[in-house]
Amino acid sequence: MPAGKKPHIEQTIAVAQSLAQEDITKIVSSSALWEQPENISVKITTGQTPEDFPNQRQYSFCILPPQIGRDWLGSLTRLNCTHFIEYFPELDLDDLAPLAGKKSHPRYDLLVCLSTRSAYHLPVARKFVTSLRHRCLIGDSIAPAVEMAVQEAFANSLVHGNLELDTSGHLSMDSFMELGDETERRLASSHHGGRAIILTARRRKNGQLVIAINDQGDGFTPPEENATAEISRKDTTFGRGLPLIKSLCQTVNFTRDGRTIELTFTNDTSGDNANTGLFGDLGHPLTTTAEDELRTARNATILIADDTMLSREIIASYLRADGFTNLVFAKDGEDAIAQIKAHNPDLIILDIIMPKIDGYGVCKAVRADPAYAETPIIAQTALEEHEGRTRIFEDGATDLILKPLNKAELIARTTIHIENRLLVQKLQAYQERTQSELELARDMQENLNPAPESYRGIGADYGLRISATFQMSSELGGDMWGLVPIDAHRLGVYIVDFAGHGLGAALNTFRLHSLIWSEQSHDQSPDVYLQVLNRHLKRLLPIGQYATMLYGIVDRSKGIFSYASAACTSPVLGNSVTGEAQFLDGSGVPLGVIREAKYETREVPFDKDSFLLLYSDALIETTLDHGKFLSEQELLSVCKDTVRDSAADIDLAAQIADQFMDRAPAKLDDDFTIVSLQSAMIPGLLSKG
Amino acid sequence: MIKIVEVIAQTIHNQVKIKKHGLSRGFTVGYTLFQECLYLNYKTKLSDNITTVEMTGRFTFGDHSSFRKLIEEVRDHDSTTMVLDIAGVEFIDSAGLGMLLLARDEGEKSSTTVVLRGAQGQVKRMLEVARFDTLFKLED
């Protein structure tokens, strides 16, 4: 930042709704987070759970509530944010200063700061690694090794660092039990339990990932004998951590007097590094995109670099005679590089023997710059010996032409290289345009689904806690869901999945969405509703395209859920107190297959303790980390445990989605949608709007 | 005479919830979850002097209280063999390995053979690198 100037920077931060204003102010005004906090104006967005934050928005920081649970840990994968900090009373912000990416430190790609007492009971390593995968900082294939190493290093920093517990040597059961009691005591104490643990990750330009885990303990650098120990040592009960870490990553370093352990990993080159663009900013205005006036071969810019004026004139006259008139000249190597930067030529005709920088040097310099990596270079030379020719190709020339120049040959080579170049540029421009159109289509499709503030508000009107998670497949997909308020007591809900994905499926979701919302009478029984919709859709859909759908109505006054299904995944109905759940019948003819399809309305009780779960088939047809799909039985167990563990005070769909993301590939082949409707006992549990 | 003991214990945010079921025979079905990746869960069963402990979930440094419960639970069984069925354990760290060693030590005191059964994926690899085949009887 230039001295004397005070740029005003506006930052948006995401904050848990339960936090008090003064605590937020305490964190935000700290110089630990910003280099010059007085220059920064902060906009605060609050949410009751991570689901409430719109995922298109980018946040500078996310402040998590004290004693965070699994729901807020899920913010690591849900929020477009790099820094996550749990607020807790003992949080020592000054000690955070060296970690927040100031001055000599580069910014982190991910930073998570938690209290020891929260971190101890959460699967932090797992969620951290899931969020690295989702940020494309690591590929799915090295994730298990990274998770293992982070788990060990994290446990080490937490148990030995912050809690200062000694677990060395061979432990008896009695000393293990003492250790357990001491752990609980220290976790409960402000001194130990209130220390922070900070995990950071940043990617180096060479692609290496550096993960550091920082604690606030006394600092511990293991002695050499410990460092060289075997994983399979038998003289110790808990002494395998460090050798294990060393076997899993490139390097292990201890810094900050042993309060920081730093691990480096070399990324797999399996190609899912979608983020490389972030590091490609080398100060060039990239001119290849959005060619306003698409160049033709004849108005292409050609640079002629030759130290003798006569040679330059001969080449220029040949080219002009053939219609190439957009010519630029350079009289030596240095000049050539300057002209290339000034004009970004489409072709370079380069003499090898030149003053200042010779042709080899120019070639090297041009190729070293990614902006000109593709620019064709024709080297012209009188050298006939073999070595010079080989060398110029090694240094990056595209083609070679011998002096004295033959006019026909020069024109032929010039034409072919320029046409290739223009073709590649056109293809790139086309690809980029399609890409941005796809992005637009994705945004539009996402907007077919209700936004959190909308579905939460509508849910509250009907005494329902509604949660939903939607993750689009790597291409466009065909999922959609929505709510249809009918009257004061009845709320309609639908979930749709079009067969296939890509542009076709996305177009169909738009068609269906307009049908659903142009249809005025939602007040029909679900079977009639689907029948009408099916007839319309059959008319619109090309043969062979179809959709699965469920339309249901929650009737709060009668205490029932009535629904009709067109081959939708079987909905889950359960009890929010016991967690017991069952599958409902999802059978029926898919939409758009036969014109006169008939549907059946099914009714089940839905009372003050009920929950309902709707989902697309990606939930049960994605290969998880154990190599299998999630079975029906597993899904019921997930519901049961999630409900039981959290005493109903949870967003069921969000919790299940978070666990799914931990175990599914970062990029899904199909759209993933999950929606839960839970009877909410406490009015005002969800604040509206 | 078959004595059946079934316990589901979970450590959740410092609290230990224990549910005891009555005399239901064998295991309740489908207890391998996805969800359990967060905490260690187990169920024990005693029959013919063999204690079988079905363990599921993640088995990591934070699980010492559920592990301690497990050990206290099976101590009364006085069985000749204890089978730790770890097929449903999806992740183990070095502290989890340490706790398995403690179970082995406990077994030695009462001449109970400890068997590790059904390790899968990451757990299986961890047992291999730590050479647990030299310390335990491993079964598929």
Task: Provide an overview of this structure.
The complex is a heterodimer of chains A (689) and B (140). Chain A is an alpha/beta fold and 689 residues long. Among the domains of chain A are: 297-427, Response regulator (Rossmann fold), CATH 3.40.50.2300; 447-679, Phosphatase 2c, domain 1 (4-Layer Sandwich), CATH 3.60.40. Chain A has a 9-stranded mixed β-sheet. In chain A, strands 11-10-12-13-14 form a 5-stranded parallel β-sheet, with helices on both faces. In chain A, helix 7 runs antiparallel to helix 11. Chain A is globular and about 95 Å long. Residues 269-294 and 682-689 of chain A have low confidence and may be disordered. Chain B has 140 residues and is of the alpha/beta class. Chain B has a single domain (7-25, 33-139), classed as STAS domain (Transcription Regulator spoIIAA, 2-Layer Sandwich). Helix content of chain B is 26%, strand content 35%. Chain B is built from 3 helices and 7 strands. In chain B, strands 3-4-5-6-7 form a 5-stranded mixed β-sheet. In chain B, strands 1-2 form a two-stranded antiparallel sheet. The chains are: A alpha/beta (689), B alpha/beta (140). Chains A and B meet through helix 7, helix 8, helix 11, helix 20 and helix 21 of A and strand 1, helix 1, helix 2 and helix 3 of B.
Identify the CATH architecture of the domain at 447-679 in chain A. 4-Layer Sandwich
Share of helical residues of chain A: 25-40%
Strand content of chain B: 35-45%
Head-to-tail CA distance between termini of chain B:
28 Å
Task: Tell me the name of the CATH homologous superfamily of the domain at 447-679 in chain A.
Answer: PPM-type phosphatase domain
User: What radius of gyration of chain B results from the CA coordinates?
Assistant: 14 Å
Query: From N to C, what is the helix and strand string of chain B?
Result: EEEEHEHEHE
Class per helix and strand makeup of chain A: alpha/beta
CATH architecture descriptor name of chain B:
2-Layer Sandwich
CATH classification, class level of the domain at 447-679 in chain A: Alpha Beta
Q: In this structure, how is the largest beta sheet of chain A organized?
A: 9 strands, mixed
Give start-end ranges of low-pLDDT stretches of chain B: 1-38
* Strand order within the widest beta sheet of chain A: 2-1-3-4-5-6-7-9-8
- If strands are numbered along the chain, what order do they take across the biggest sheet of chain B? 3-4-5-6-7
Helix content of chain B: 25-40%
Mean pLDDT value of chain B: 73
| Strand segment tally of chain B | 7
Report the portion of residues of chain A in β strands.
Answer: 15-25%
